[in-house]
Amino acid sequence: MAIYVEHELHARRRSRNLGMLAVLLAFVAIVFGMTIVKLARTGDPSAFEGFDHDIRYGLAAEAERAAGEDTP
């Protein structure tokens, strides 16, 4: 049977680790919540395709066709 004595340093380290765990979980919860709210606002996740700072030639062609149809 082993004798186990926990040093004070281990107790402090455990409390810091638990504090860091709480901070990281809070950060993940905030990012996840913001993502869910942003997706729920639009109702259509495909609406984000145009906001990735990359040219989507299919979307540009559709916009040009729509603009050409509006002008007489």
Keywords for this entry:
about 70 residues, mainly alpha, 2 helices, rod-shaped
* Number of structurally distinct domains: 1
Number of strands: 0
Tell me about the biggest sheet?
A: none
Q: In terms of per-residue confidence, which ranges show pLDDT below 50 for 5 or more consecutive residues?
A: none
Name the structural class.
Answer: mainly alpha
Question: How do the SSEs run, as a string of H and E?
Answer: HH
What is the assembly state of the chains in this entry?
single chain
Please tell me the overall pLDDT: 79
Strand content: under 5%
Count helical runs. 2
N→C terminal distance: 92 Å
How much helix, percentage-wise, in residues? 55-70%
Shape, please?
rod-shaped
Radius of gyration: 26 Å
